[in-house]
Model the fold of this input.
Amino acid sequence: MSEKKNSAPVRPVPAGGGPRGPRAMGPMQPIHKETVARLLKYIVPFWPRLVFVLVCIVLNAIATAAAATFLGRIIDDYIAPLLLEANPDFGGLLTAILQMAALYILAILATFTQARVMAVVTQSVLKKIRDEMFAHMQTLPIRYFDTHTHGEVMSYYTNDTDTLRQMVSQTLPQTISSAITLVVVFISMLNCSVWLTLLMLVGTFVMLQATMKLGGRSARYFVSQQQALASLNGYVEEMINGQKVVKVFNREGKAKEEFDRRNDELCSNMTEANKLSNILGPVNNNMGHILYVILAIVGGALAISGTTNLSLQGAGTLTLGAIASFLTLSRNFMMPVNQVAQQISFIAMAMAGAERIFGLMDEAPEQDQGYVKLVNAKEVNGQLTETDEHTGLWAWKHPHSADGSITYTKLQGDVVMVDVDFAYVPEKTVLHDISLYARPGQKVAFVGATGAGKTTITNLINRFYDIADGKIRYDGININKIHKPDLRRSLGVVLQDVNLFTGTVMDNIRYGKLNATDEECIAAAKLANAHDFITRLPDGYNTVLKGDGSGLSQGQRQLISIARAAVADPPVMILDEATSSIDTRTEALVQRGMDRLMQGRTVFVIAHRLSTVQNSDVIMVLDHGRIIERGNHDQLIAQQGQYYQLYTGAFELE
Done:
């Protein structure tokens, strides 16, 4: 085992909670205007479709209001006169009913079209957000993923984007529709009766006060719900990955206790949020029913008393048809008010999700001021020149800002560290005064107990983290001046923890070099002694691996990762416990292949099995972040220091 796990940075509890301990619930954060503005930037590019949706909403609102007003005309102009006729003619009434039906059909078609167009807009907006979120995530430093659980990161793509989907597809058009409907219906109500409209406004004001009070409390719990959900997802993901460990140590009970605690917190927030949200609808509905009765009583009283009725058409008598139309309009007026009230909680939840998503997008990307590039080169008349062909010869491309000239230097694989100090967190230095010199073609091995700093050194060479003090030079170039992708392209890494991706075996090997031919991939597999077991798989190299290669043994997975590094053909190799998961017999076969792979390359090897590093040019023994011994195998044995004790078994690595 390497020291990677123990020397990893201490994880602070992230904003959404994490699997490292309880998450304190803070007060609700206000919805920032910047969040709304940023969200609108994703929606505005679809303005032609949105204009079409707006037209549909207006048509729906006008058709609905007109149908309600039409009801008054049917009563006053057709039904009431027909009741007084001995031989009524229903032709006019039938025509009026058909006209009214046409209005309702128009409203239905407008609603249907609006829903279809908004579905396209919604998915397009979410696709763009997910694309940008994932693209930005690729730019984040390793430190971010060391301090955030996988489940929490996944929550951005699932729970948070789903809240946005609901808001864009339902809440946003419904809010706009409600606003337009309110305006149209309000004008229609004024056209019926100013007195009843004023009474309606008073009742609506009372309802809005109740809505704001209940909706505000509900919104606070919806925000907390999103945070608790991210915390629970992170814990579940961690438990799934570590299920074997949980069972081996009989920790099912403790795992369940922690899950129950987090689930109780989520349940509490969801219960409070939905309880208040669910109360809001019935409260508004019942208040609407009461208001409806009051309007009917007052309207009837005004009609019976003969009170002059004011409307946009002027003064007149309040008729039965006008009262019926107004009562229908009051229903149409209350419906959008209730809809907006019920959407408040969902808007708050969506804004909480949006703030979390934009928080991820605002995470500082990995800094890279490097300007030296790695290029394929060929030698012409003793001069290095850049080429698009893969020649096997690599060169560093140095642009000079002073005169605009470019020089090329051959990649040698010379790595030097001078007086390097490093700390994952400021208060705990894990490397002290590390100095090493890896000459081209040398094999440098790191030996030491878990937590000694072996993997940390290779992390610094890769620039996964930047050093606090000292210098690291690669072929005489300060690695801070080398463009990070080019630096990492020059380094082949075989990690202790193997990650295989869903796809064929061939695809996983080719991951090290995407333009590699099948023949090159097979040659790399043979070099790593993976060819024999691959050919015994159901479909050979075309066998599809799923679940991180769960159908393979740990040793087989490691062999594929070694083949993946081999096909990349890098000038420098880093082997982090590359053979730790392979049995002794297979290790001997792999070691011969690795020796062929390492020939002519600078190689850094981290190993607990001293048999794998005996042929190293330099062996460095680390203890608590310091190099305490260095030399080749024979020299260290002769010193009879800690390496000697490790080799003879007098002292064992922990």
